[in-house]
Amino acid sequence: MVSSFEALGLQEQFLQAVQKMGFTEPTPIQQEAIPALLQGRDVIGQAQTGTGKTAAFMLPILQKLEPGRRSVQALVLAPTRELAKQVADAASQLAQETPFKILAVYGGQSYTIQTRALSRGVDVVVGTPGRLIDLMKQNILDLNQVHSLVLEEADDMLEMGFIDDVERILKELSDERQIALFSATMPEAIRKLANRYLKDPQKISVNPQQITVAETEQRFYNVREENKLSALTRLLEVEDISSGLIFVRTKARSQDLADQLGGLGFPADVLNGDLNQNRREQVLDRFRQHTLKFLVA
Q: What is the pTM of this model?
């Protein structure tokens, strides 16, 4: 088993970036995916969130880019705007020792911002399928030079109804492209998609039977509806929580709970589909910077 990033075949600028980001040794998905992608293989990776997937596909993509092309060479599809932004931010960190430009494109953000960035020259685009197709229809996004494509969280894209859009994008690519597909689960529709578009892929599976990553501790409490708020606040008072993400069933409930927690002195805000993109990004930035302790979603 490989024990260092140096042994994976990465160039010095990427080893420096990895070191600056505090990564000391590759995760299992990185150990297998990085060499395969650097060799030009298509890859199917089955791994959960938190296993290091982004660096597993982004480091090989960045290493294979040609500087000075001023055209999109790699494309990453993500099911949500938050994931697209997260992947683009991580890619920018991994590319910090290079001249390569990374752009996130998603609905809710100004077309003007995205158009200007693309006209100035972008090497990697990370985006949601709907916005990517909009840009393609307007002849703003040209995929003719794309040689690497990543489908991130493919099962989520299937569940959210994006598979037709994904296929439309796949059909626009050159036959010489390299594809990496990552998914926590492998439903039949995803397997069929992989069979249609991937060529002799290397299959990598990291703890497929494990529902959560090892760092996640799970506990379950059976609580009556009328006691939920008091039980939750007791947990928040007793546990040493630097930041917390609280999931609820409906948008209305998310707002109600955030208001209730705020009234009880817990710094909380809401993240749901009623927020516009600017407001969503403001809330997420506050959460990342720890000025907001609890996020209700």
A: 0.76
